[in-house]
């Protein structure tokens, strides 16, 4: 009779899943566009970076509250939130490469392109998904 709504961090599992897919697509596109090849996971450095980015992305989503009020935000507020999320992820990935002393081996072009692609793909997908959810209601 009464449907209980999901509370807490599982409330927006769809947005979390979409963000992770966007991150993978952006990382792969950056690797291809920087003429590194097609197989991103052939080199262990890029494979480790992918694992780091995925785990860190999830941690940032929960710790910064990136998805808090995601359905109520306007386009401008969503853009600001997405850029903040991407900037923190970018800074942590730079710190990761610095601490492991792998910055020399890692392509800066892949790193910058990945975050540019990620920022715009994620923003676009979030807005499109919010529109889809609003139509559903």
Q: What's the β-strand tally?
A: 0
What separation lies between the terminal Cα atoms?
Answer: 18 Å
Element-level helix/strand string: HHHH
Structural class: mainly alpha
Overall mean confidence score, pLDDT: 85
Taken as a percent bin, the fraction of beta residues is under 5%
Low-confidence regions: none
Shape: elongated
How many helical elements? 4
Using only C-alpha atoms, the radius of gyration works out to 16 Å
What are its keywords?
mainly alpha; 4 helices
Q: Which SSEs are present, and which pair or pack?
A:
Blueprint (H helix, E strand, L loop, with lengths): L12 H21 L10 H21 L10 H25 L8 H29 L1
Written account of the structure:
Helix 1 packs antiparallel against helix 2 (44-64), helix 1 (13-33) runs antiparallel to helix 4 and helix 2 packs across helix 3. This protein has helices spanning 13-33, 44-64, 75-99, 108-136. It is mainly alpha-helical. It is elongated, with a radius of gyration of 16 Å.
Short structural summary:
This protein is an all-alpha fold. The chain has helices at 13-33, 44-64, 75-99, 108-136. Helix 1 (13-33) packs antiparallel against helix 4 (108-136), helix 2 (44-64) packs across helix 3 (75-99) and helix 3 runs antiparallel to helix 4 (108-136).
């Amino acid at each position: 009779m009464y449907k209980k709504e999901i509370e807490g961090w599982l409330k927006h599992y769809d947005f979390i899943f979409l963000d992770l897919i966007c991150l993978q697509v952006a990382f792969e596109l950056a690797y291809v566009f920087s003429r590194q090849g097609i197989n991103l996971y052939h080199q262990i450095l890029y494979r480790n970076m992918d694992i780091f980015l995925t785990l860190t992305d999830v941690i940032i989503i929960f710790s910064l509250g990136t998805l808090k009020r995601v359905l109520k935000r306007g386009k401008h507020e969503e853009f600001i939130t997405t850029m903040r999320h991407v900037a923190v992820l970018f800074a942590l990935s730079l710190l990761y490469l610095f601490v492991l002393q792998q910055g020399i081996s890692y392509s800066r072009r892949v790193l910058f392109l990945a975050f540019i692609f990620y920022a715009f793909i994620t923003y676009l997908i979030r807005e499109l998904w919010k529109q889809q959810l609003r139509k559903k209601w």
